[in-house]
Amino acid sequence: MDFSFSEELEMLSKVVKNFVDKKVDPRGQQIEEEDRIPDEIINESKEMGLFGLSIPAEYGGTGIGMVGKCLVFEQLGRTNNGFTTLLGAHNGIGSVGIVDLGTEAQKQKYLPDMASGEKIGAFALTEPNAGSDASNISTKAELKGDRYVLNGTKHFITNAPIAGVFTVMAVTDKAKGSKGITAFIVDMKVIKEAAMVKYYAAEAYCRVADKALQVFGGMGYMRELPIERYYRDARITRIYEGTAEIQKGIVAAQLLKEYAI
Q1: Which terminus of the chain faces fewer neighbouring Cβ atoms within 10 Å, N or C?
Q2: Could you tell me which CATH number the domain at 191-258 has?
Q3: pTM score, two decimals?
């Protein structure tokens, strides 16, 4: 039996090793200090196909299989662990659930963008009171109409700040124990919800600042007190990064699209 690697896989391993030695390792300390992976490294990783290691070729991935993936991570394991973990979580628990268990429609919707690195995957299981004891999670999913509403808290989720697609574990039937836990795909492209949050937070901030100034009366305008600065700081939030009117327009447009009105 021949246990040697194919010429293609050998070449891939050498390319990844060269990338690690020349591009990633020299910036290891920078990654630690800034707590982020430089954009240049992420972009080159995308070009090399490192975000599509677990995804079949028909969905834009490399289709190199488990042996090929192991060879790649053998080289990645030699460098900064933060970078390796980002790719590991994405190519592992962040995407294999969709690859192995997703419907064809789900695969076509999510995998191409995940393979290209345009959307990074994350797996949300761990909670403040449940980690290794996965069956003890408390996040719930309730069916309301034709969709599920998830409520709960997750933490220590790798890739959470940068992920575009989450696999979220939630309880759908508490009586069934671990058998009553379901995996949900959560797309973080939440244009409508983001606009709603921006609008609501800015309005609330302004109401609170206005009431504080009113309590202090004329003294609220004086620079000797910080109230006038709070009021100015609050007021600008209704203007920058999309005015209140713009946010309402975005919400309206998304609702019209959502309900095909």
Answers
A1: N
A2: 1.20.140.10
A3: 0.80
